[in-house]
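Deliverable D4.2, example record:
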Amino acid sequence: MDSLDAQPPFRGLADRTPMVSICVPTYNGARFLSQCLDAALAQTWSDFELIIVDDRSTDRTLEIAAAYAARDSRIKLHQNDRNLGLAGNWNHCVHLSRGQWIKFLFQDDLLEPTCLSRMLAVRRPDVPLIVVRRALDMGPDTPEKLKLLYQWHATLMLRHLFPGVSFVNPGDFAARVVKQPTNNCIGEPTATLIHRSAFDRFGLFNPNFKVLTDWEFHARIAVHQGLCYVDDELATFRVHSKSTTQTELARSSFRTVELDALIMLHELAYSATFEPVREAARRRHALDLSFYLAREVRRTHRKAKRSAGTRGQPGSEALAELAALIRTYPRLAKTPRGYLRAIASEFLRHARWDLMRRTESLLSMFSRMIRAGRAGCL
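Output generated by the structure prediction step:
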């Protein structure tokens, strides 16, 4: 038996722990919810419960979910007493679920019928994260710029970074995080299957993120225990203008892009969970991630000041968002020991190189002038 799948004896069918909990966190998802639930119920792997957790939707989401729950006893429907937000609702899904494995399925997304069975077939002892390649469904309302962005990002996913590999070991994954700390090479939660033990060991989703929530959590797991990978499109992520990511970007691109990146770098530089990444940075790249973070904080602060007066993002708002983040993560405002010395050393090194290049250019010019003068004399 897979060590991750060991479970205590149960007294009867009602007490039995299902192998998988398919968790569908919802919020105003009526548009695509029926297709999503149909895909979940069509799985060839039948040992699952389906948990729908609604975050106080104001459209027909709850009505649609209730109709499905009335028809299938595997479906459990819960509505939160108050809006918990994205990460809060995901965490509540985990809390309410009973399965040994957690399969998130977003309200906009789809699964192939064999998704669960294919993912469970490749599980390994003590590897609590399984990932499949996801397809993209670009809605007709998707801006062309966004389509190009997702097409470019597809070249930075697992199948390209680790070609031909069905298991990515923790060391190689940690080294990849050092190179591209904010690149979600795994994909969205719909593309993952997570063993419950991962939440016990690594905690829950961090609610301070806007869009890198899943990436940071999946990275927490993979840098310690690696991941199993199925290089087939068994999940579909729907891209459209009303998605959570696009909504957050429209609300504040500075908060969503720039400050999410700072939180991720902060965790990599200081969180005990990400020590494997810091070790990979020191050993493979001679890089101190706290120095990298300090430099990015200063760059982000300059960008916030420059944004003053730009349409849709007043500088004062960006600066206020940065200040609020620093109150949550005070280390963002601190200068790491040795940072100023390292910056001065780097400045002098670049100045020396620049001086050498200029000197070489002048010597080369003088040499050409001398050769031209000699040729004129002849």
